[in-house]
Every structure is written in structure tokens, then in C-alpha cells.
Design goal:
Blueprint lengths: L18 E7 L4 E9 L5 E8 L4 H17 L5 E8 L7 H11 L6 E5 L5 H11 L14 H4 L1 H13 L11 E5 L5 H10 L3 E7 L2 E4 L6 H11 L9 E3 L11 E4 L18 E3 L8 H9 L3 E3 L1 H4 L2 H10 L4 H26 L3 H18 L5
Helix pairs in contact: 1-12, 2-3, 5-6, 5-10, 5-11, 10-11, 11-12
Length: 370
């Protein structure tokens, strides 16, 4: 169902995956992939990504990121992820989402949530079909993760802690956002509220740059009305790739995987990178940034706000409790990881992996052995 060769053996390691499932329902047009990576800490929670080019490799990497993210945040959940191969703007979206929900009815170790291409409404459709989902609309008792900007709140809390580790002050910091959507938009708003200045932003249609600063609230209005950041007046329209070369202090990649890679890493001028998207940089790119002295806070530490909020929702908590948990847990884990980086000179990714794996492995030791 996907074009890339799939060699299952290359995915196996001591953590997982527990399940890799392909779904195909011809009548609805559903084609999807679900990966349940590890459930030692509890049932897996992870988003449903909807895109025409999603791959098995991408879904597995995202599921592993969720295992580490949930463990890193100290949550009683494992990691899972789903990818639906479809256009999220399709008129058949509801039919496909509902077919997907019915197809995972018996996969009770996986609790879906919103991700790129899906939202609270999609989760309500899934809840209606199978009775389990997170990131739900308020009217059905949920905490709308995207509406309240849960991940953005976590990124801002991460910035508060990380900035001093690279001798950066948030007051006056120039911010570039790759992916001005449900993650990038609230992150921009909160970083500007801390005294930063948004100088570049992008979406799937293009990017804009203004070294004198972009008014975030006006950009939000323009994006909502016109459907593109490029309709913002007074800024230069640039390519999406050019955004990574914009002079800035903080870069927030908040869209697709591997957008920071060997081909553009040396053009990045930021001093601090807060990974708002999952797996937004290749391993080689992260190593190169570390060599250059750029501080990169890994995805499952920086962007854990959404899943922390989802975990609070899953056990019946409210919005204020969720946002407090986001700020507390993200700040605590950021500090623990960056203290290790400073003390040992290791990559932030290595420190973050060690933190999360230690928690997963401790949970695995408590599981029944065959």
C-alpha cells in the first residue's frame, strides 16, 4: 500500500514495536498505517496524521517519538501513531476518518489524538465510532489541544528554561516559525508575549520575512481569512526553504519531519532551536548543529505539551490543570536534559533519550516475563 520497501527487521529493537498494522478498506477509500510501539508504561497515546505521502517509516519513527515523549514526561502511557494516506482537505474526510476508527476498534492498546491533518472534530468522529480518543471538543467533555495551544504553551515553557543555557534573552529575541499552524501559531504568540519578535513564518503555501517584526495577531487574522501567510502585507515573500536561512535567535520547526537536514543545516543562523514538530531534523543535522554550538531541544522534550494535556484529559482533568501540568513537566524535563548536556558535553538528543529510555525500561522490568 506504500511505495517504499518495508523491511520489518530494521524496526525491531529492545523497545518495540509491539504492532505494525496496515489498514485497507476499499469501499471508503481508507488506506492507513498504525504503529503501537511500546505499552510498558500504559496504553499508547499518539496522534493520527493525515497526508497523501505518509510512510511506514515515518509512522514508526513518530510512534517511537511518542514512546519517548510519554516516558520523558512521566506519563502512564506508551507510544503509538497512525498515518492515513489521504488529503486532509478531501470532501471524503469524515467518511475516511470514521472508517479508520472502525478499523482500529479492537486495537485497544492505542488511543488516537489529533495530529497534522486532523483536529478535534476528527477525534469526535472517532469517539462516536469506538468510544476512545483524546483532544476532543469541549462539547463532548474534552480538552481541545489545538484550540488552547497546548503544545505552544510547552514550547514557551521550554524556551524559558533553555534560553539561559545558550546565553540568550527572550526579550528582543528574533523568532522564526516553520509551520504557522496549531503548534507554531500559539508558540509565536507566547514567545512574542515574552518580549520576542516574530521575523519569519511559513505554511504549506510559502513563507514571509520581515526583520523589523511581523505582527502576530494580524498574521493570525490574515491566515484565517486568506488561508496563507503570504497574504500578510508589509513582509517579503520567500520560499519555505529560505526561511531556514533567515537571521534569527530562535527557530521553531513545527511542521513536517526532516525539514532540517544536511542540505540546509549550515545555513541556519539561530542560537536556539525548539523542536515543535516531531522528528523535524535528521540525526546528522542535529550533530552538526551541536558542533556549531547551536542548542537544539529535542522534539519529545520541547513539544510534549499536547500529550501531557491529553493525558490529563484521559483521566478526567480540566484545562487549567492540564496547562499547569504542561508548564511544570516541560520545564522540569528541559532543565534535566540541558543540565546533563552542560555537565557531560553530550548531545541533547542523547541526554533526552537516556532520560526517557530509563523510564521505559524501568516499566518494562515490572511487566510479566514470558
Amino acid at each position: 500500500m506504500t511505495s517504499e520497501p518495508f523491511e520489518l527487521e530494521r524496526f525491531f529493537d529492545d523497545l518495540g514495536p509491539a504492532q505494525v498494522v496496515h489498514l485497507h478498506e476499499p469501499r471508503s477509500g481508507l488506506r492507513a498505517i498504525v504503529v503501537v510501539d511500546n505499552v510498558a508504561c500504559g496504553v499508547s497515546v499518539g496522534g493520527v496524521r493525515m497526508a497523501t505521502d505518509v510512510t511506514v517509516d515515518e509512522v514508526f519513527r513518530l510512534a517511537r517519538a511518542m514512546t519517548l515523549k510519554n516516558a520523558g514526561a512521566g506519563l502512564p502511557h506508551g507510544g503509538g501513531k497512525a498515518g492515513i494516506l489521504a488529503d486532509p482537505k478531501s470532501a471524503d474526510r469524515e467518511r475516511i476518518i470514521r472508517a479508520f476508527a472502525r478499523s482500529i476498534r479492537t486495537m485497544t492498546d492505542y488511543v488516537p489524538g489529533p495530529d497534522m491533518g486532523t483536529d478535534e472534530t476528527c477525534m469526535a468522529w472517532i469517539l462516536d465510532e469506538i468510544g476512545r480518543a483524546v483532544g476532543l471538543p469541549r462539547v463532548v467533555g474534552g480538552i481541545p489541544l489545538d484550540e488552547i495551544g497546548a503544545t505552544g504553551h510547552g514550547l514557551a515553557a521550554c524556551a524559558d528554561v533553555a534560553a539561559p543555557f545558550c546565553d540568550l534573552k527572550l526579550q528582543g529575541a528574533r523568532v522564526a516559525i516553520e509551520g504557522f499552524g496549531n503548534v507554531g501559531r500559539p508558540a509565536a504568540r507566547l514567545l512574542v508575549a515574552r518580549g520576542g519578535a516574530l521575523v519569519a513564518a511559513s505554511d504549506s503555501t510559502g513563507a514571509i520575512h520581515d526583520p523589523d517584526g511581523i505582527d502576530v495577531e494580524t498574521l493570525i487574522e490574515v491566515k484565517a481569512r486568506e488561508g496563507t501567510v503570504t497574504a500578510y502585507e508589509g513582509a517579503s515573500v520567500i520560499s519555505n526553504e529560505a526561511l531556514f536561512e533567515v537571521p534569527c535567535d530562535i527557530l521553531v520547526p513545527a511542521a513536517r519531519p526532516d525539514c532540517i537536514h544536511e542540505g540546509n543545516v549550515d545555513g541556519i543562523q539561530a542560537r536556539l532551536i525548539l523542536q515543535g514538530a516531531n522528528i523535524p531534523a535528521t540525526t546528522a543535522a542535529e550533530e552538526r548543529l551541536h558542533e556549531r554550538g547551536v542548542l537544539v531541544v529535542p522534539d519529545f522534550i520541547a513539544n510534549a505539551g499536547g500529550v501531557i494535556c491529553a493525558a490529563v484529559e484521559y483521566r478526567g482533568g480540566g484545562e487549567s490543570e492540564a496547562l499547569e501540568a504542561v508548564k511544570e513537566k516541560v520545564a522540569q524535563n528541559t532543565r534535566e536534559v540541558l543540565d546533563a548536556v552542560r555537565a557531560e558535553g553530550i548531545l541533547p538528543r542523547e541526554a533526552a533519550n537516556r532520560l526517557a529510555r530509563r523510564r521505559v525500561e524501568a516499566a518494562m522490568e515490572l511487566r510479566r516475563r514470558l
